[in-house]
Amino acid sequence: MSLLNVREITIKFGGLTAVSNFNLEMEEGELVGLIGPNGAGKTTAFNVITGIYTPTEGEIFFKSKNLKGLLPDKVTKLGIARTFQNIRLFSNMSVIDNILVAHHFQLKSSFLSATVRTPNYTRQERSMYEEAYELLESVGLYSVRRDKAGSLPYGRQRRLEIARALATHPKLLLLDEPAAGMNPQESDDLMEFISSIRKKHDLTIFMIEHHMQVVMGICERILVLDHGNTIAEGTPREIQLNQQVIEAYLGVDTDD
């Protein structure tokens, strides 16, 4: 079975169908993009996969385990991490503390052992710090580890958010518009960064992105949503030439 298998997912909010019959199969190591006009249902699809929403119909399997009905923390423990369209860092906390927050769910010590700081808890804490420092070094943020997250330039905040997701040791990483607000140079740097962490951390990546330079430059396969429906799937070149996709984005019939 594929690493991720999304089968006929539909989600309705009252009388509104946000996503209809959404299907996706991802093999290990793939980098797949999800695009579409605003309001197409892209983030809703992410929210279903990560347990924020429970689908009205359909099933989701990750490493052969059914995710339907699991809460987000359980989904994370299985190996799925995500970022958000709007950066959700703890702005008043340091860079290192933002990473440590993601590590804490892996601690096996009890509240009591943490309170009295038993040798076992101290060993786990030391290991957690060492891993966090190594991660920050690998993503180029070690030098600002003591700085407040909110004081970082925008591009570095994006990088920190991705690093925090990596701290949960995911096999599948979902990125929601990671290039939002970036200039062309920052977007190029982001593509290089995503490619490097994909290889270094053996990741499978599913990415929402409006920045076509990023989508076409990095994704091997692209799905297109419009009004909750999948209207196209293919390689970047196939998507660029797809008339239905062009109509969805431009609002015109290219045959006219």
Brief write-up:
Helices cover 39% and strands 23% of the residues.
Fold and architecture overview:
The protein has a single domain (28-186, 196-250), classed as Rossmann fold (3-Layer(aba) Sandwich), CATH 3.40.50.300. The chain is globular and about 60 Å long. The mean pLDDT is 90. Helix content is 39%, strand content 23%. Helix 3 runs parallel beside helix 6. It has ten helices and ten strands. 34% of the residues are buried. Strand 4 (57-62) and strand 5 (65-66) form a beta hairpin. A six-stranded mixed beta sheet has the order 6-7-8-3-9-10, with helices on both faces. A four-stranded antiparallel beta sheet has the order 2-1-4-5, with helices on one face. With 256 residues, it is α/β, with parallel strands linked by helices.
What is the approximate shape? Answer: globular
Radius of gyration: 19 Å
Helical stretch count? Answer: 10
Helix fraction? 25-40%
Structural class: alpha/beta
Multimerization state: single chain
CATH homology group? P-loop containing nucleotide triphosphate hydrolases
Count of discrete domains: 1
**Largest β sheet strand count, sense and barrel closure:** 6 strands, mixed
CATH structural architecture? 3-Layer(aba) Sandwich
Q: What is the H/E order?
A: EEEHEEHEHHHHEHEHEEHH
What is the beta-strand fraction?
15-25%
Q: Major sheet: order of its strands?
A: 6-7-8-3-9-10
Mean pLDDT: 90
Secondary-structure map:
Elements: E1 4-13, E2 16-26, E3 31-35, H1 42-49, E4 57-62, E5 65-66, H2 72-78, E6 80-82, H3 95-103, H4 111-116, H5 119-138, H6 154-166, E7 172-176, H7 184-200, E8 204-208, H8 212-218, E9 221-226, E10 229-234, H9 236-240, H10 243-250
Parallel strand pairs: 3-8, 3-9, 6-7, 7-8
Antiparallel strand pairs: 1-2, 1-4, 4-5, 9-10
Helix pairs in contact: 3-5, 3-6, 7-8
